[in-house]
Task: structure prediction
Amino acid sequence: MKGIVFTEFLEMVEGTFGYDTVDSIIVNSKVESGGVYTAVGTYPHSEIVQLVVALSQETKTPVPNLLHAFGRYLFDTFSKNYTTFFEGVDNAFDFFESIENYIHVEVLKLYPDAQLPKFYTEARDDKELHLVYESDRKMADFALGLLEKGLEYFKEEATIEMKPLIEDGSKVLFLIRK
Amino acid sequence: MPKTSIIQRRLDREIRARKQAELVLEKKALELYEANNKLSVLNAQLAEEVEVKSTKLEIQEKQYKKLVEEASDFIINFSKSLKFTYVNVQAEKLLGLSKEELLTKTIVDFVHPQYLEQAGDFFYDFNHRELNEPYIELPITANNKVIWLGLSVNLVQEGNAEYYSTIARDITQRRKIEAELEKAMSGLERSEHKYRGILQNLKLGIVETDVNGIVVAANEIFQNLIGYSEEEILGKTPEESYVHNNDNQGSLVSVGGDDTQVSDLRLMTKDGTIINVLISAAPVHDMEGNLIGSIGIHYDITELRKLTRDLEIAKNIAEEAQRAEQKFLAVMTHEIRTPLNAIVGMSHLLKDTSLDNEQSEYVGLINNAADILQSLVTDVLDLSKIESGKIEVQKQDFELIQHLDNVFKTVKMKYAKPKVELIFDNRTSDQLWVNTDKKIVHQIVTNLLDNALKFTEEGKVALVIESKSPTEVKLTVTDTGIGISENRKQAIFEEFEQADESIQGLYGGTGLGLAICQKLATLLNTRLGVDSKLGEGAEFSIMLPIKAANAQVFQTQTTQTELATNKSTILIAEDNLMNQKYVTKLLEKRGIDYVLANDGKEAVAIASQKKYDLILMDIQMPQMTGVEATTVIRKGNGPNAKTPIIALTASTLVSQRTKAFEVGMDEFLSKPFRPEQLYNVIENYSGVISDKEGHHIEIDEAYIAEYYGDDDEYKLDMFNTFLESTPFELDKLDQLSKHGDLESLGQVAHKIKPTFTMVGIAELTEFMLQIEQAARKGDEGARTLVDKYMNSLRDGVELIQKEVKKISQK
Result:
């Protein structure tokens, strides 16, 4: 997993709970890296899971909520750091569809070893977009946060309904209705 | 947890993170550097490659240029204003000017003036629309010669400049050949046009097929004929598309065969109409003589066929009508005969009653008229029988001279013409055996003699028998009568024609006699000859073949004849007991042997055993009708296949009688029939000589009923008239016989003769006729006959007396 996810996550935790909590979850989770992350590095996925679980225990907040909050947080970082992906896109649906077809393609060019979820359109009309999230990492809640912030970014109002297609959450359908 | 240690850990993490990041970045920087080095190398390689390629191109260009300069084709470039900008060496030679000189000229200076306009049009088109093949052929004048060039034109752009680049080739030779070919082709076309025109006018459908019988071309007439367009039948065999299924007899042309074939087929047009065509198909060969297909010429004969069919139908109708007419005639004539016989009989009776002169004359006229009518009816019946094929020639061996003598005597008896001498002139041997139809010879000779006597008032009538060769005998009837003019000689053989129209008035007759004779002669495969001059009498003759080795045949034949006569037997097929009794009794009276069959099936079985002289066949019988039985007997090869069969029928239906004739019955007797009728038939058809002694006399009730009906008073009146005169006349007959006065005997017999018919005992009239005929001949045998028959005659009178008593007692 890219280092930016870790650095951003720890920044969010620090911003919200203070560095004490950051230090606490690093120590408690016993991550192999010892909590040393740089945005340009690459780290095992398991470490973010360990950190999230530790934060959940520390703050008595469920893991999905934490992932959801992190998703919302990360969108802002992305929209600030990677403006190229927003150029020429004027609506949320187009942007959501470009995740799989454009953003992930470009990410892979830069980081050929990146492991990205599948996030493809199943159906679309003017009012509705059906996106399928598919990943062994089961981070659909994280995706939900990203999507919500995406709508806000384009100043569009829509409801997002999550439907697990596989019970363990490795495949989830997002029904986005305007 | 102490704050300092947290800060310490944080710092530591930050430092380590920074170092980690530096490491990553350093690694990335190194990668970048290496990538850059690689790119530099690649760039150098590329530059080198470009240089090599450029040198190669340069060499190639030089080569091309050389090629262009030295090409056998003319390469000429000119500007948009058609001014030369470049010419190769070949072009210089062609145009007879140096490159420098040419560059001052335009292409127009060389193009043949007649083609300038065409050239102008071409370049206009070239500039204004996209030409698929920018190519033009133009004649140019150079070195005082006209040379045809074929130019491929390209517009070349170099920077801002545009010019035409052309590659031209000398096509003078080709043009020359083409011109000649065109000339030849136009001749061919004219010739083809001519034949096409002929074919078009002939309205012949032409179809071309390949070796597999698949249609490769069809002309317009054929397309119009079958209603399919050429596209619809191409690629298929005619059988697949338009030959009528039933006529599917393989390919139209036997592929591989060298013969032209003509066949007659039915085609099914697109709209389902069936047409008849006559197809003449011929194989087609290529230059090397290989078979490459066939051409079929189709001629529509549908109308012709229809016409033929219509004609056939018309012909059948006509023939049917003719057959119907003949049948009608035969049946009608037969039907007329019965009442006519009554008129003849009754008027004869009437003549012998006491009449005044006037009445006598009237009766004479009735008599005469009835006689004429009777002979007319007989003739018509004979004629229609011949024409409808009812008369079957039945050849048999017989002795001609004796037979002719009998015929002659019969005719002689019939006519009493004191001024005419009748001569029987046999110039051959006493006996002459022939094999022919006895009855037909009899009829021809009788007719000829009748005819001769009719037209001869004075002089001679002779029957001459001559043997002109060892194989033929000629029978001639000559007379000294009125004769026939040259131009009527053929007409007299026509039906209802006589030698002269006035004849009818003078001599009467129907004009059928000779026609019948001629037709009968034809049946015997001979012809009736005539020789006559007007006013000098006539001579009619026929030739008959004589049997070879006459004497020998005579020997065997005599025996056979005797046998046949002695063994003569009649087969009676009759299911009704009453009728059986009636018929058998009549036969017994005449001593004729018979065999009885109770139904048709039995009759067929019996008939298959041995030959009978005659078969009397009832029509309505159980098991098998008379018609069916006759059919079986006639169709089989049994002994009675040719035996005369007489139908006995109560039916008056003409259809039934016609049916009887059709299956091969020879005659029919309507029930109830009189004994006389039966005897006549037996005599006519079997030649059985009946013994007339000791027979039973009875009144023919049917006859009486027919003529008197229920009118007893009238019947009594007639019977009493009979009883008043006849016993007296019979006494007289007896007396005259005893005294041997034959002449008076003949006269009295003649007078009595019809009276028996009048009272229903026609049988006795027959006896009386025999007596009369014998007496008139001066034959002493007449007296014997009187003795022989007198008892029967008196029995007849007695019978009538009883009958009168019976009627009176009612």
User: Anything to note?
Assistant: Chain B touches chain A through 13 residues (CB under 8 Å). Residues 1-70 of chain B form one domain. The first helix of chain B runs from residue 3 to 70. Chain B has 25 helices and 22 strands.
